[in-house]
Amino acid sequence: MKKRVIFLITIDTEEEWDWSGPLPVPPYSTENISYIHEFQDLCRSLSIIPTYFVDHAVVEKEENCATLKSYFKKKECDIGAHLHPWCNPPVTEEINDHNSFIINLPILLVERKLKKLTDIIKERFGIHPFSFRSGRWGMDGKIMRLLAHYGYQVDSSIRPFYSEKDFSYDNALLYPYYPDFENCLAQGKQRSLLEIPATAGFTLPWFQFSNKLYRILSTPKVARLHVIGILWRLKLLRKVAITPEGYTTEDICRCIDMNIHNGNSVINLFFHSSDLRPGSTAYVTTPQDKQNFFRTIENVVTYIQKTYHADFLTIREAYTKMLEENLS
Length: 328
Fold this sequence. Notes:
Number of strands: 14
Mean pLDDT: 97
Distance between the termini: 14 Å
Order of helices and strands: EHEHHEHEHEEEEEEEHHHEHEHEH
Structural class: alpha/beta
Strand content: 15-25%
Low-confidence stretches: none
Helix content: 25-40%
Largest sheet: 8 strands, parallel
């Protein structure tokens, strides 16, 4: 039987700062949270229930929690956890780029931070957070094991074909799976924590070949020839993440098609809450950019509904549905 397509919208809900500069320091600005009302209006019009992964800088402020709780109580959103180590107590590490990835921190420090974050979310929202996403995408099996120990049932930190100097997800699975805690990119036997990856890929169906070619063309000696840019303009090689952050409706929808063609029936669109406040990210610098950003989301949602009759779910609902239908 053909799997029914599931569509998720997940938001890294966090402080705003200049991503091109140093990491933020206290007091953290979270003005973007007051802009969630407009996004929730859009979600309501599209019958979407988003999942907000909230970090400590957001939930430590009562006014932010009041905003989010107003929708959470009406079951118009769900709440997960998002760990930015630089603003999540205890902050005993040096604040630098290396330590901004939790995979580079001592596991005991990560555990202390995770416990603090989990406890404050439970205190503010009256529920144990069900799902988790790490800041800057860094994840490994040790931290996954920790998540399972603290009662999380879903992680969404894996972003296929994404790499940093400290990790690579080039070999990540596209679809939800139970990860091996010794190798978080492989399927394992444990059933306590499900990985629901953020969705990414290419606009052609040969993902692994496309990624190998992309990596070769990205090496310093070849990159100066700008072959990737030429192939992009020719629509022959386009690496795309399912996010309105810098991608067009056409490319997102094409990448969705190719994901489904390659067996991934769970489409996880993502962005950052700071995109909702014009001027807070490079993707939304003006009110017109914000309108275009919202229009892209609306167009993608309309496309996936008309083309695939997708179920619009939260991560929590998707987890339940996958268990019932044995999709995972």
